[in-house]
Each structure stands twice: as structure tokens, then as C-alpha cells.
Specification:
Strand order of the largest sheet: 1-2
Number of helices: 5
Radius of gyration: 15 Å
Largest sheet: 2 strands, parallel
Length: 111
């Protein structure tokens, strides 16, 4: 499962890493190819009014950025707002903390 805006967030992150000279063009191309392959395999959660309602409360409550709030709200939509024992894969410390507080089983991928 992935949020509808995930690829936009990933492209923005990749662009920043290239600007900061932290990723080479070759690595960027490989990463974009991997993203495209992953996208073909996941179920995408589209934007809904309920996701917006959930996401609106998360920045203040959990100190999340907008994109992270949407990711978390989409995950709640995916599990019908019953996160107990549901996996949540995450690289971001704040988002992982919020997901755990809500009840997801957080998997902290390291690469």
C-alpha cells in the first residue's frame, strides 16, 4: 500500500539529494527505475475527504509535516482505522513515532 502522493514526495527527495550532490545521476536513474517497479506492485490509496480530515489533525498532534500526515492518514484508511498488528514501514523518526503511538507495528527499514 502506498499513498497517492508518495511518488511526488520521493521525486522531491531525489531532486534535493541531487542538488546537494549527495546522489549521482547514475544512482538517481537506478532509484527512479526501482521506484517505477515498486509502483507497479503496490496498491495506491487515493485521496479522500476522510484522509484529509485525519491528516489535518496530525501535524499539531504528532509534529508531522504535511506529506507525512497524508502518509499516516492513508495507512489508517488502508486498515479501516484499525492499525493494531498492521505493519508500517518507515525511515522517518517522527513519522515512525506517530505511527507507533496510533497503534501500527513500525518496521524501521535501514536500506
Amino acid at each position: 500500500m502506498a499513498w497517492w502522493g508518495t511518488t511526488v514526495e520521493v521525486h522531491a527527495t531525489f531532486a534535493r539529494l541531487v542538488r546537494e550532490d549527495r546522489v549521482t545521476t547514475g544512482k538517481l536513474e537506478a532509484a527512479l527505475a526501482r521506484l517505477a517497479a515498486l509502483r507497479r506492485s503496490w496498491r495506491e490509496v487515493p485521496p479522500t475527504e476522510r484522509i484529509r480530515e485525519l491528516a489535518e489533525s496530525f501535524p499539531e498532534k504528532y509534529d508531522l509535516h504535511a506529506g507525512d500526515a497524508f502518509q499516516l492518514a492513508a495507512a489508517l484508511e488502508w486498515c479501516d482505522e484499525r492499525p493494531r498488528n498492521r505493519p508500517f514501514v518507515c525511515f522517518d523518526r517522527r513519522l515512525a513515532k506517530a505511527a507507533a503511538e496510533i497503534g501500527f507495528t513500525v518496521i524501521r527499514e535501514t536500506g
